[in-house]
């Protein structure tokens, strides 16, 4: 709620002082919020797992979950990454146990490049499964639906 005060000065010449403005200017705040919105919109897609791979495409449904799963990525050269960190297959299980506090109920997603050898993906999954982790899933990219062209009748 804004209010204004009027002061009468001792001048008899008719000069009046303008009252101070007591309204809040929200324009700078809106400008800052819009810039932050744009920054977050641009950076949000980049915050996924950082190793770039070409996931195979399937028609499977998307899994819903509350907690953030661990991601193991296998790139086109067969190199294994835990989240964004490159790791050898022998060091994978001790690192998983340290991260998960030896909790076998943690969800682990295995992301394999479409061009990587299937045996390499199975080797990583077998290693994780043999360590006692039972919630291991393969990640794929959802296939885009194709439009069927209608054949013209003649």
| Morphology call | elongated
Instruction: Please give the radius of gyration in angstroms.
Output: 30 Å
Q: Which residues form runs of ≥5 with pLDDT under 50?
A: none
Residue share in helix: 25-40%
What is the strand arrangement across the widest sheet?
Answer: 4-3-2-5-6
Helical run tally: 3
Instruction: Write down the oligomeric state.
Output: single chain
CATH class of the domain at 50-142: Alpha Beta
Strand content: 15-25%
Q: What structural category characterises the helix and strand content?
A: alpha/beta
Second CATH tier, the architecture of the domain at 50-142:
2-Layer Sandwich
CATH fold naming of the domain at 50-142:
Nucleotidyltransferase, domain 5
Order of helices and strands: HEEEEHEHEE
According to DSSP, the number of beta strands is: 7
- In angstroms, what separates the terminal alpha carbons? 75 Å
Summarize model confidence as the mean pLDDT.
Answer: 76
Largest sheet: 5 strands, mixed
């Amino acid at each position: 709620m804004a209010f204004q005060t009027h002061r009468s000065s001792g001048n008899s010449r008719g000069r009046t002082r303008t009252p101070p403005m007591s309204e809040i200017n929200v324009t700078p705040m809106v400008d800052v919020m819009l810039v932050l919105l744009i920054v977050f919109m641009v950076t949000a897609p980049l915050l996924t797992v950082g190793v770039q791979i070409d996931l195979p495409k399937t028609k499977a449904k998307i899994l819903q979950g509350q907690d953030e799963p661990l991601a193991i990525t296998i790139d086109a050269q067969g190199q294994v990454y835990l989240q964004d960190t490159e790791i050898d297959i022998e060091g994978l299980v001790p690192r998983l146990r340290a991260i998960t506090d030896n909790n076998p109920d943690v969800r682990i997603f295995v992301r394999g490049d479409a061009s990587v050898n299937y045996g390499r993906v199975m080797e990583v999954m077998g290693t994780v499964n043999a360590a006692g982790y039972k919630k291991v899933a393969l990640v794929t990219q959802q296939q885009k639906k194709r439009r069927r062209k209608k054949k013209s009748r003649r």
